[in-house]
Write a structure and sequence with these properties.
By secondary structure, the protein is of the alpha/beta class. It contains 13 helices and eleven strands. 47% of the residues lie in helices and 20% in strands. The protein is globular, with a radius of gyration of 20 Å. The structure holds nicotinamide-adenine-dinucleotide and zinc ion.
Length: 372
């Protein structure tokens, strides 16, 4: 194993198909170069990315092109647009036309949308080729790149077609976050708060101490936070690789969050911002199920410090219908992920729909207050 500076962490995700090292920190891409170069030696490398990410940070990946036999950059659309069956089909055709073989390599270089599409394309091409995740957004570094879930959207629903295909490595270079728009940083930070609130109270304290520096995109400050959040996600994924149990803890804030995204037609609010509102609402349910008030207030206050954009006017009935359609809903009804105390979460089923309905009305009226 090559030596890394103090600022690079190497985590390991153990999963049913092997192990995935996760390298995190400032200039992690430089530290990972020898391993990636050896992995690429003599192979065709397909780099799936977007025009924006390539223009901003392609030079950080480019040195690896000298190690590969062939270096093929495949640009896809920016954002969620990339996650379509058509984009995947385009990639497969281009890879085939470029002579891709079963031992070709793929590098997914971009945000979560590029990672989900790239992983899916790699997982299906010739029944599966090896790939690495090089996530370039905070959300992708702490969440989307870890755990092997890949996929695309259908017109009828997000992430409706996909498969588990773990990357060979995840390389999360926090230097690239310096160019991330502040709104994207905030969106990813909601997921960090989510993990800290249910899984890592020490990380929660660090967020309380440094939130404004982190939101300014300081790569050195972000390094340990991305590492801790990635470690928290790795812990849950290892306990529950196929999302039957503990992994559902990661859905804290997502029950209402997904409904808000869907009710807004996936425009206006970013995913993390919608989840931020989902967390604020879940805290109300949690308070009436034994969550202590000081913990609720701390989680609430930290979300408020992210300064979420205003919640569009939404009809509670539309939100309830969207929650009922959520693919995470079971035949038996909705399961709410709630904090039991700071650093510990639990799954609660049987929350009566009249309680959710009444709670939602009150919440939509004043989302930023925590009722007495
Ligand atoms: N597979 C999983 O387990 C998992 C988990 C969570 C989310 N996701 C998926 O992740 C996707 C969202 O990912 P996201 O939030 O990263 O959004 P994204 O991939 O759409 O990227 C957001 C924006 O940031 C830009 N960008 C990316 N890196 C940049 C950089 N370094 N500097 C400047 N701009 C940059 C992109 O061009 C894009 O416009 C969703 O499709 C979601 O379903 C997957
Ligand atoms: Zn999320």
């Amino acid at each position: 194993m090559p030596p890394f500076g103090d600022d690079i962490s190497r985590l390991i995700l153990d999963h049913p198909d092997g192990v995935t090292p996760v390298l995190v920190g400032e200039d992690a891409l430089v530290a990972a170069r020898p391993e990636l170069a050896a992995w690429l030696a003599g192979r065709t490398a397909f780099v799936v990315t977007t025009a924006r990410v390539w223009a901003l940070h392609g030079d950080r990946l480019e040195p690896l092109s000298r190690s590969a036999a062939r270096w093929v950059v495949l640009e896809v659309e920016d954002g969620e647009e990339a996650k379509s069956v058509e984009s995947a089909e385009r990639l497969w055709n281009e890879m085939l036309a470029a002579g891709g073989k079963r031992d070709s390599r793929l590098l997914a270089f971009g945000g979560g949308s590029v990672g989900d599409l790239g992983g899916f394309a790699a997982g299906c091409f010739l029944r599966g080729i090896e790939f690495v995740q090089v996530p370039t957004t905070l959300l992708a570094q702490v969440d989307a790149s870890i755990g092997g879930k890949t996929g695309v959207d259908l017109p009828g629903g997000k992430n409706t077609v996909g498969l588990f295909h773990h990357p060979r490595w995840v390389v999360s270079d926090t230097s690239v976050l310096a160019t991330l728009p502040r709104e994207e940083l905030r969106s990813g930070m909601v997921e960090v708060v989510k993990m800290a609130a249910l899984l890592d109270p020490d990380l929660f304290v660090r967020l309380e101490e440094r939130m404004e520096t982190l939101l300014a995109g300081d790569p050195a400050a972000l390094g340990p936070v991305v590492t801790a959040a990635a470690a928290a996600k790795i812990g849950v994924v290892e306990r529950d690789p196929t999302e039957q149990g503990d992994r559902r803890l990661l859905n804290f804030g997502h029950t209402l969050g997904h409904a808000v995204e869907s009710a807004c037609g996936y425009t206006g609010l970013r995913h993390g911002e919608a989840v931020g509102y989902g967390i604020l609402f879940a805290l109300r349910l949690a308070l009436s199920r034994g969550l202590d008030r000081p913990s609720a207030e701390r989680i609430h206050a930290l979300i408020l410090r992210l300064r979420l954009p205003p919640l569009p006017e939404l009809d509670p009935e539309t939100l309830l219908a969207a929650m009922a359609r959520d693919k995470k809903a079971l035949e038996s009804g909705l399961v709410w992920v709630l904090p039991r105390t700071l650093g510990e979460g639990w799954m609660v089923d049987g929350v009566p729909s009249h309680e959710v309905q009444a709670g939602l009305r009150a919440f939509l009226h004043s989302p930023f207050t925590l009722p007495a």
